[in-house]
Amino acid sequence: MDVSVFKETLEISFTKLSYSVNGAGKERKTILHDVSGRFRSGRLAAILGPSGAGKTTLLNVLSGFKQRDVRGVIEVNGEPRVPTTFRRQSCYITQDMALLGNLTASETLLVAARLKLGPEHDNHRKRQMVAEILELLGLQKTADTRVSRMSGGERKRLSIGLELLTNPPFMFFDEPTSGLDSASSVLMVTHLKSLAVSGRAVVCTLHQPSSRIFAMLDDVLVLAQGQVLYCGPTDQLVPAFERAGFACPQYYNRADFVLEVASYERGDSLLQLIESSRSHHKEKTPRLYDDLLDCPGENVPLEASVFLHEHLNNWYSLSSYFFGKLLSDVPLQILCPTSFLLLSYFLTAQPADVCRVLMLWMVCMLLTILAQTMGLVAGAACDMQSGVFILAASSIPMFLFSGFFIRLSDIPVYLKWLSYISYFRFAFQSSIVALYGFNRPPLVCSVPFCAFKQPRKFLKELDMADEAGFWCCVAGLVTWIILLQMALYVALRWRLHKAR
After folding, report:
1. Three-state secondary-structure class, residue 150
2. Are 180 and 21 spatial neighbours (Cβ–Cβ below 8 Å)?
3. Which of 98, 146, 224, 245 sits CB 3.0–4.6 Å from 305 for a disulfide?
4. Pairing outcome for strands 287-289 and 90-93
5. Rounded to whole angstroms, how far apart are CA atoms 210 and 204?
């Protein structure tokens, strides 16, 4: 795989970027204040600053992951950045990039290759590219290891490999050395350096790099409370700070020195550094970047972060993911109720009637789909704790007025409407009618008198004697499924909107 294909100089520049969010009450909290700078290809650039300085926020804005509430100018190679085009030219590897733990490293790359590469690449070529990336990132020995059993450094290198499949010219990394030991951190930054040397524009955030890592950086941007103290070559950083009155002690780690200055440990005023940095960048007319990504568009919350990352890195659209998950779940949705029904139906001595089995199987399958979809909606719209609470709170009223605990005719008038929308009632009533309705012969009685020997009497006791109600209940389950699927799509779209 040729990773040195970028011959022309690439550059992303930004002028007077500001970003704010809603704070306490009606006040807005400004995270970035008139941030300006530029990053070029062939050079490894890092954004430095203490915690809360705005490093990750700036990276989110530059990569296009955050576009709402952003003011300023962002240009790519001297032209205004077009978000849809830039998404195809860039990738963003987050600090804790979500990967599916049950897949091996090679399987993860192969799935990504099939999603991201077009039909011009056949299966042989895709497998060849996977092998080349594994070799490039030193992952050959872990190619058949499950992701859940890989080390932190190996998972981070694998996340880089996923984006190398499309060979993007702009690469953004959020805290790539987070959670790694010193040796693994150096190895990680060495890989980033090799990507930059191959002609890419590589930008990362680093919290507290060692002197060895700092020496590998070509450019740095220093942030303090959302403002730029310096943006330029690494070898000019110390002189720039000295001109502002901040002298770096001899043999002192320059990264530690910069962070101490940005944390106000070496002085109370950084105004001269801020003004000096701004004077190096030509001001341009700010404009609002509030346009959303034009995509047409987490399963169960475990896949939510995977979906967000892959979609925002332009792997697939929301519609493709939604309908793909819808179809991929069908086999399991058929297998589970079928296995349950084949065991329970005949173990309870029900009649060997094909029609009854099919009707009951249909009800079980619809209820399975409904339950799974409801869980997906809660997972997509809420966090784990809130989702569990909302599901329980919304299901209890439906369960109480399903006709199982209380006869439908005994439900108070002002609560009867709950029984008309209860999906538990639809499932319970249709199952009972399928088992005991449609002229089922008398039940076998082992004692002289059985009160419910006639199935019809049993149905009347439950207020479910109307056999036409079976299909009404089935229609009710189908309606619930359609509404929940629509809610799932809306929840996923809302989650994408919120992520931006």
Report:
1. coil
2. no
3. 98
4. unpaired
5. 15
Say which range, 132-146, 277-291, 484-498, has the weakest mean pLDDT: 277-291
Residue linked to tokens 């300006």: 36
Cα distance between residue 14 and residue 286, in whole Å: 10
How many Cβ atoms are within 10 Å of 313's Cβ, its own excluded?
A: 25
Residue 499's identity, in one-letter code, is A
- The closest alpha carbon to 6, from 51, 55, 43, belongs to 43
Per-domain residue ranges of the chain:
11-294, 318-499
**């079976």: which residue's tokens?**
470
Say what the pLDDT of residue 293 is.
33
pLDDT at 119 over 80: no
**What H or E segment, with its residue span, contains residue 209?**
none
Overall residue count recorded for the chain in this entry? 500
Helices 469-499 and 423-436: crossing angle, nearest 10°? 150
Architecture of domain 11-294: 3-Layer(aba) Sandwich (3.40)
pLDDT band at 499 (very low <50, low <70, confident <90, very high): low
Mean pLDDT, residues 415-420: 86
Looking at the whole model, is its pTM more than 0.90?
no
C-alpha–C-alpha distance, residues 32 and 11, integer Å: 21
Is 59 within 8 Å of 48 (Cβ atoms)? no
Which tokens belong to 26?
Answer: 């009606």
Residue type, 357: V
Instruction: Find out whether 337 and 362 touch, Cβ atoms under 8 Å.
Output: no
pLDDT digits over 65-110, tens only? 887 788 888 888 888 888 778 877 888 888 766 788 888 989 988 8
Distance in angstroms (rounded) separating the CA atoms of residues 222 and 49: 6
Tell me which of 237 and 275 has the higher pLDDT: 237
